[in-house]
Amino acid sequence: MARVFLLLAAFGGFTGVALGAFAAHGLKARLSSEYLAVFQTGTHYQLVHSLALLAVALLWLHAPQPVLRVSGVLFALGILLFSGSLYLLTLTGISKLGMITPLGGLAFLGGWFCLGLAAWRMGR
């Protein structure tokens, strides 16, 4: 499981940096400043939660717990739903994609909750 989360963290970090650079250089002239900020929010959350996936992977090596697996899955799902919906919204202009974004936010919250629960259980 640690390997999967490490690979997801590396992929998320790599693509987050690449997408951030793409937005700053390739999309600056094509998107409104509002949509550019929305895209950058997607990259910001992707990068932060890629680091969270890295933490989950390292914790898994120390103390594998089923709740850590849930945490990692929720972080990965959150990146897909939250950041992915923001990327698609800005690139396609389909505003209804914004309805998916809160589901990604809920996945992020669940991931952090499960990570905290794992930490609590490690103290026992």
UniProtKB/TrEMBL annotation:
Organism from which the protein derives: Pseudomonas pohangensis
Coiled coil regions in record: none
GO cellular component: plasma membrane
Protein name (database record): Uncharacterized membrane protein YgdD, TMEM256/DUF423 family
Main location per the UniProt record: membrane
Record's keyword annotation contains Manganese: no
Membrane topology: Multi-pass membrane protein
Keywords: Membrane, Transmembrane, Transmembrane helix
One Pfam family named in its UniProt record: DUF423
Transmembrane segments: 44-61, 73-94, 100-120
Protein family membership: Belongs to the UPF0382 family.
Localization terms from the record: Membrane
